[in-house]
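Hi V.,

You were right to ask for the full record rather than a summary. Here it is.
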Amino acid sequence: MNPLVEQFLDYLSLERGLSPNTRAAYASDLRDFISHLEKGGDAAFNRLTRDRIGDYLLDLREAGRRTTTLARRLVAVKVFLRYLAREGLLAASVAESMDAPRLWQMLPGTLTPREVERLLLQPDVRKPLGLRDRALLETLYGAGLRVSEATGLTLDDLHLAEGYLRVFGKGRKERLVPVGEAARNWIEKYVADARPLLLGAGDDSRILFVNRRRRPLGRKWVWRLVGAYARKAGIARHVKPHTLRHSFASHLLANNAPLRIIQEMLGHADIATTQIYTHVEPARLKTIHEKFHPRG
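Predicted structure:
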């Protein structure tokens, strides 16, 4: 347990007189929040931003958590950060102005198609690692995969001639995901030219994306890689692997893909989760109104 969280929990018990059950609930919520920050590669509270908290809440929503759960998690984070600020451990709480009624007005971060193109061009494909990174980025965006889904791919999951990948999502639920020509080409090139060099002779690993130590790529490492390439591309916003998944969905929606089809490709159990993307493209809504409304 993080020592600052332990200090906060002691404060709740000793000074606020909260029950053991309430203390345990705060501990569980904050443990989950910190785990999310660590997966992103930076769990320092003094560098925490509203966007990072928003990303956490959106990830919870996509995972199918109830609104009440998200509201409770937000309260736990706010109370914890308020405590740190009061103790002089933070200059101010970045979550103070966030509240549950405004929670669903937050939109998932997306990139424009031009920004995606700039990002995809950053890896040096003349080198094995650059070729792997290009194939990985193309897969995250071209198939809209979660990080865990992309890093879990094996050679047996590739059905590139048929144009799809076999993906294991949350709860090991299997689905088939179409993958575009660009991603297929880069995966094929990586498998033929770079992966054998990274693995070396005699290695029979079936994992698709491997590091220089012949091991599967870690989720935290992929977060850092995407962020580094985004900065190199001159994208000022915080970009993470899930940003490419959000961009995949919103770009499909902008080109009139049916929401139910996007739901299937993303592996959402509930279409209400997919519907957050209907707010991302106001220009598309304006076009539909002009086309179909009698007074448009």
